[in-house]
Amino acid sequence: MGMFVNPDNSAFQVALNSEIYVDKTGIIKYTNRVFSRLPI
What we know:
By secondary structure, the protein is mainly alpha-helical. It has helices at 2-5, 10-16, 27-36. The longest helix has 10 residues, at 27-36.
């Protein structure tokens, strides 16, 4: 069953090293900071 779920992280490593990978780690923090500056 492990083969079908997530046997290792090789697919993630391939995506991480590809040109189309976008790191969205800080997007929520950035978005909140931008929206908090907008007048209501």
